[in-house]
Write a structure and sequence with these properties.
Structural class: alpha+beta
Largest sheet: 6 strands, antiparallel
Distance between the termini: 29 Å
Number of strands: 16
Radius of gyration: 22 Å
Mean pLDDT: 78
Order of helices and strands: EEHHEEEEEEHEEHHEEEEEHEHH
Length: about 325
């Protein structure tokens, strides 16, 4: 649904908290400084100056905002310096019940993260208004109009009194969007090697690239353990991954049995999400491994066209494992 991010975003307990320097006390005054960015959004010594207005925040505000940003996929391409600039430049906006934050058809000016309160996304079609999504004390909206320079595709209205974190459109485009474009191009080339993603259109593939996080593991490192909660699935970009299960025929030994290997171009970790179960196997790096990690909320939102294929593939390779080990979910 292209409704200014009207679907749930990547929000799970595994999100990283902000860097400790974000939690330091700040001066209680608004300040401004000029930064230069090149075409990739990196700081540069010459070029157009972007004036960053810094809004003071308490330690509690910094902690809440940093946590919210770590769970918002449009910020995942940012490096530490870019993330700190974004946090510094965001400011609180209090909204009274019944007030509209954005209106369908308007020009996009800001990006918003919900800090507190309930907000309803409303779409008007054929003269009728319909609530298509509710933000309940979390989530974000407003990025699509800024990313694609299109009018707002929905109205977002406060169903209760609430508080939003606001980022100006200029800051969003100059920092967040440029970083996302650079990351998208890098991932798009890598994802072309993943067979199942060939089912996606170019637009869908680019959205997946935006939501991915690059992970690297050394030989023998554990990626996840049997019994862990399933928050992510993985695409193997380089190297290989070995899947192991505890030997059910001799539980006291604690020995693991090799189940399969996942080479470059394959994926793993989807079974636990499809079955809504904890991990029933462990995954280990074979040599140096590069993975693209996608959290399950983004999976649900972005990989709908692939789900049927994944379920069909799962049945095919689970059957002999179930016969030998019982139920299984990676």
């Amino acid at each position: 649904m292209e409704e200014d991010n009207l679907s749930p975003l990547a929000n799970h307990a595994g999100g990283n908290l902000p860097h400790s320097r974000y939690l330091k006390s700040r001066r209680l005054s608004i300040s401004a400084e000029a930064c230069n960015f090149d075409s990739d959004g990196e700081e540069e010594g010459s070029g157009k100056d972007l004036v960053v207005v810094k809004h003071p925040k308490s330690n509690d505000q910094l902690a809440r905002l940093g946590s919210a940003i770590s769970k918002t996929f449009v910020f995942k391409a940012l490096n530490d310096e870019q993330r700190e600039l974004v946090i510094d430049s965001m400011y609180e906006k209090c909204v009274s019940k019944g007030n509209d934050v954005i209106r369908q058809g308007d020009v996009g000016d800001n990006f918003y993260i919900v800090d507190a309160g309930i907000f309803e996304a409303i779409v008007k079609r054929d003269g009728k208004s319909e609530v298509v999504f509710k933000y309940d004390n979390s989530g974000s909206f407003g990025e699509l109009a800024l990313m694609y320079n299109t009018p707002r595709s929905a109205t977002v209205r406060a169903a209760t009194d609430g508080v939003l974190w606001t980022l100006s459109g200029e800051m969003f485009r100059q920092i967040v969007l440029k970083a996302a474009r650079k990351k998208r191009e890098e991932f798009r080339k890598l994802l072309q090697s993943v067979t199942i993603l060939k089912e996606l259109s170019t637009y869908e593939l680019e959205n997946v690239a935006d939501a991915l996080v690059l992970k690297k593991y050394k030989n023998g490192e554990c990626i996840f353990k049997e019994g862990d909660q399933a928050y992510e699935l993985y695409f193997v970009l380089a190297g290989a991954v070995e899947i192991r299960m505890l030997d059910k025929t001799n539980r006291q030994s604690g020995q693991q049995v090799k189940i399969t290997e996942c080479p470059a171009g394959s994926y793993f970790g989807e079974l636990a999400w499809l079955k809504k179960d904890p991990r029933a196997a462990s995954a280990y790096a074979l040599g140096d491994v590069t993975l693209a990690e996608l959290d399950v909320y983004a999976f649900e939102r972005l990989l709908g066209p692939c789900r049927e294929i994944m379920e069909r593939n799962a049945k095919a390779y689970q059957k002999p494992l179930i016969e030998k080990f019982g139920s299984m979910a990676m």
